[in-house]
From TrEMBL, chain B:
Name of the protein described by the UniProt record: Hydrogenase-4 component F
Keywords: Cell membrane, Membrane, Oxidoreductase, Transmembrane, Transmembrane helix
Organism domain of life: Bacteria
GO biological-process terms attached to the record: ATP synthesis coupled electron transport
Cell compartment(s), UniProt: Cell membrane; Membrane
Length: 219, 533
């Protein structure tokens, strides 16, 4: 693969990762959001594979496989189960409406470009120039986490944040050491499983997963 | 100081002789593996056999093994040397000090757990399944914390802190019900997000290390010793972003503003011995991560930036905690906010960063850990006795249960920094170090806040201890809430003394630390490793 082609591919994939993140803020249908998250997982795996091929690194290709299984397969499957159990198909009343969310997404993306200036400056290359995408996805995930009220939406926000971090890690460093990467993936998986169980308990205790019900503990 | 750091690094790189190697290698392996492996084995035993009284005592023995390993590590590292096993596990004086904190608090908490879970099973407040899960998770919790402080690699250290969130999630939710579910959800979501930010910071540090230049092969590493040795070559632009993320991220687990809101809920809903472990050790283990990163940050960046950042979150946390304590009506939440206040003080010590300040904050961490372990475990017994966590629901404790009330009162005295307890010495040393670094205004602010905290704690606690105890009130308080499980009253009365013993031991340790100062050498060595200027 020539350098020009791989650079173009890299840009296309990075763009797709950002686009899927923005679309999750646009959709209200939770099943569609989970689908978007899975698609984003495929693109992140593609990014790792592309970097692995251009750098001829078997370790990176292995990481790409792990990312594909986890982010496009296992995690969305768990989320679908939570969704099926809960019977709530839509994020009914986000604290910020869709139009405002999309405007906020634009502002956050600009902010990501400003923030990642020093990161790109350290080692300018095709990959690091795409770094603002990773940071933008982190910010969008954080935004989703604080503005949505369904428990499942919050988990999705957390996973979006994690996808952003994984993207940043691949773009900046071609992946942290495999041991650490595996540890992180395992942690994310366990956190989601823990949250799945807690969400089930929440339904038993409160009858819904609307987090406005969480108001007994305050001063 | 600088020579101490340099020597430690040379030794870690194998450039200085470490004594007869095979011998020392085996000792190091044993000392470093015991704190991780033995509690994990205790967890396995509990998984196989379920909760039994003797299995619970095995957990106490495992905690004692951590403490003994900590003492052995302290003896080996007090001179500034380093124990290492295969580049994965590593212990210097700082690690040893943290192992002492983990071991000491764990002994108290697991010992208290024997009566706590035994009582709950007797009163049918928990099931055999719940007790088994509790026993497994508490042992795993201790093992992961020990692993965190022993990790040579900052990535592994991160994974250890994240793992503590996972193993403690169901401990926070042990009691079930709406409040516990709510506390668990907040705890897992907020801490996971915080720790994810810390991971992003870790990635950026790795990125900076990949491009730090130089021909000696610093091609991307998270090994702490190597990073410290080359910290001045890390790119300041990237490191500035990384440090902000790390302080925010690990600060979440320390209970610092702005991501602190999980702390009072989790601490007040968790079973008392778990609160003791979380407040006494978990917070400071996350603080330990900040200590490790601070040395790198100060060398890579403008030290004034790092100091300002830590001062803002430190003072902010103390101010917030003090303001929440003033009108607090729940004693477990009062203790939780007090943890936040003390972690704020520790962070201020970190901001000062001189060897004196570091030694003082380590002593403070140890003292706070022991005092909080005593207080949370005692508050669990007060809850069992009275059935309420509201302070105005507890009256005349001194008349009803002199021993418990005495332990509680002495614990509060220790927490408030009264002599002869070690927090008096450490707070004094912290103030001296802060003033010595030209930050007298910080001392002034902190003193005012501590005065507020003193009143906020002392006044309601005095009511709990000495308040008029009305016999007609007894029917309401004792039987009003516990009538569903009358067995608990009998069981609690029968096992009064055994549950006081570990708490009394904690108080004795606090006095010994305050009066005899046996750890001065170790703490100074630790301070030489992560202190600056």
């Amino acid at each position: 693969m020539s350098a020009a082609v791989s650079t173009q591919l890299l840009d296309v994939i990075s763009g797709a990762i950002l686009l899927t993140a923005v679309l999750t803020l646009w959709r209200r249908d939770l099943a569609a959001i989970i689908r978007l998250l899975a698609i984003q997982g495929v693109f992140i795996a593609g990014l790792a594979l592309l970097l692995g091929v251009t750098e001829r690194s078997g370790e990176l290709c292995l990481a790409a496989l792990a990312v594909a299984v986890l982010k496009a397969g296992v995690l969305p499957a768990i989320l679908r189960r939570v969704l099926a159990d809960s019977g709530e198909v839509r994020e009914t009343a986000p604290l910020v409406n869709v139009t405002a969310s999309l405007l906020a997404a634009a502002v956050l993306t600009l902010l990501a470009y400003v923030l990642s200036g020093p990161l790109v400056a350290l080692a300018p290359s095709a990959a690091t120039r795409a770094l603002p995408v990773g940071i933008a996805v982190v910010l969008l995930g954080f935004f989703m986490l604080v503005t949505r009220r369904r428990a499942l939406s919050q988990v999705i926000g957390f996973l979006l944040l994690d996808n952003g971090i994984t993207t940043t890690a691949f773009l900046a460093t071609s992946g942290v050491p495999l041991v650490v990467e595996l540890g992180v993936s395992l942690d994310v998986l366990l956190v989601v499983i823990v949250l799945q169980i807690v969400a089930a308990r929440m339904r038993m205790a409160f009858g819904s997963t609307d987090l406005d019900g969480l108001s007994e503990l305050r001063d | 100081m600088a020579t101490g750091t340099a020597m430690a690094m040379l030794m870690a790189n194998g450039l200085l002789p470490q004594g007869p190697l095979p011998d020392r290698g085996v000792t190091a392996a044993v000392v470093l593996l015991v704190p991780v492996v033995v509690p994990a084995l205790a967890a396995g035993l509990a998984a196989v056999l379920g909760w039994r009284r003797w299995v619970a005592w095995v957990a106490v023995a495992a905690s004692a093994a951590v403490l003994v390993a900590g003492i052995a590590a302290a003896v080996a590292t007090v001179d500034g040397s380093v124990l290492a096993v295969g580049g994965v596990l590593r212990a210097d004086a700082l690690t040893s000090a943290m192992l002492l904190v983990i071991g000491g608090v764990s002994v108290i908490a697991t010992w208290a757990s024997v009566e706590y879970i035994g009582g709950e099973l007797g009163a049918q407040k928990t099931t055999a399944r719940g007790a088994r899960r509790y026993a497994i998770l508490v042992a795993l919790f201790i093992s992961t914390m020990a692993g965190t402080v022993l990790a040579a690699n900052l990535g592994v250290m991160w994974a250890g802190i994240e793992a503590t969130t996972i193993v403690t999630a169901f401990l926070v939710g042990h009691h079930g019900g709406r409040r516990a579910v709510e506390a668990t959800w907040k705890y897992v979501i907020i801490c996971s997000v915080g720790i994810a930010l810390a991971y992003l910071g870790t990635v950026l540090v790795y990125y900076a290390s990949q491009h730090s230049g130089g021909a000696d092969g610093l091609k991307g590493t998270l090994d702490w010793t190597t990073l410290v040795a080359h910290a001045d070559r890390l790119d300041p632009g990237v490191m500035r972003i990384a440090v902000v993320l790390l302080v925010l991220g690990f600060g979440t687990k320390v209970g610092l503003v702005p991501l602190h809101s999980w702390l009072p809920d989790a601490h007040s809903e968790a079973p008392a011995p778990v609160s003791a472990l979380m407040s006494g050790v978990l917070l400071s283990v996350a603080g330990y991560a900040l200590l490790r990163y601070r040395v790198i940050a100060v060398a890579a960046l403008d030290p004034a930036f790092v100091r300002a950042l830590l001062l803002v979150v430190g003072i902010g946390s103390v101010v917030f905690a003090a303001s929440m304590m003033i009108a607090q009506r729940d004693y477990k939440r009062l203790l939780a906010y007090s943890s936040m206040e003390h972690m704020g003080l520790v962070t201020i010590g970190m901001a000062v960063g001189t060897p004196l300040a570091i030694a003082a904050l380590l002593l403070h961490v140890l003292g706070h850990g022991l005092a909080k372990a005593v207080l949370f475990c005692a508050s669990g017994q007060v809850l069992e006795l009275t059935g309420t966590t509201r302070m105005d629901g507890v009256r005349g404790l001194l008349v009803r249960r002199p021993a418990l009330a005495g332990v509680f009162a002495l614990g509060i005295a220790a927490l408030l920094g009264l002599p002869p307890f070690s927090l008096f010495a450490s707070e004094l040393a912290l103030a001296r170090a802060t003033a010595g670094a030209g930050l007298s205004w910080v001392v002034g602010v902190a003193l005012v806040l501590l005065l507020v905290v003193f009143v906020a704690i002392a006044r309601p606690v005095a009511g709990m201890l000495f308040g008029p105890y009305d016999a007609t009130d007894r029917g309401h308080a004792d039987h009003g809430d516990t009538h569903e499980h009358p067995a608990s009253v009998g069981a609690a009365t029968a096992r009064r003394w055994p549950s006081i013993v570990p708490l009394a031991l904690g108080l004795v340790a606090l006095v010994a630390l305050g009066v005899a100062a046996p750890l001065d050498g170790l703490l100074q060595s630790a301070a030489a490793i992560v202190g600056t200027r």
